[in-house]
Write a structure and sequence with these properties.
Elements lengths: L3 E4 L6 E3 L6 E3 L9 E4 L2 E3 L5 E3 L7 E8 L3 E4 L11 E5 L4 E4 L5 E9 L1
Antiparallel strand pairs: 1-9, 2-3, 4-11, 5-11, 6-10, 7-9, 7-11, 8-10
Length: 112
């Protein structure tokens, strides 16, 4: 797995429903026996959040709802925007830094 992976809005494998007009994009399949914690985060500029490493094997996923955020392990960050999905190793020191007001995202901590 690359250190940081971003799936831009409208990209990624899609599944079309045969019963309706619903289209779903798979952002991340859960590995067997994985545990996930899901949050909703609102951040404003000048409210960066530094995080110490989580337990070994942790992968963090971010699904952006609004704004954009510079996130990921120190020295290997990316800037996903509204609608994007990002994943990275959560067992390294990492941070969230919102450059725009009204930043909202859903981080998912996947503990192996």
């Amino acid at each position: 797995m690359p250190a940081v992976q971003v799936i831009r809005a409208g990209q990624g494998p899609t599944v079309h429903s045969e019963q309706s007009g619903c289209v779903a994009t798979l952002l991340s399949a859960s590995p067997p026996r994985a545990r996930r914690d899901i949050y909703c985060v609102w951040l404003e500029p000048d409210t960066a959040r530094d995080s110490e490493p989580h337990i070994p094997g942790t992968v963090e996923h971010i699904v952006m709802s609004a704004g954009k955020v510079k996130a990921g392990p120190r020295g290997e960050s990316a800037e996903p925007e509204a609608g994007d999905h990002m994943s990275y190793r959560g067992d390294l020191p990492h941070a969230y830094e919102p450059p725009t007001p009204g930043t909202k995202f859903v981080p998912i901590m996947q503990h192996a």
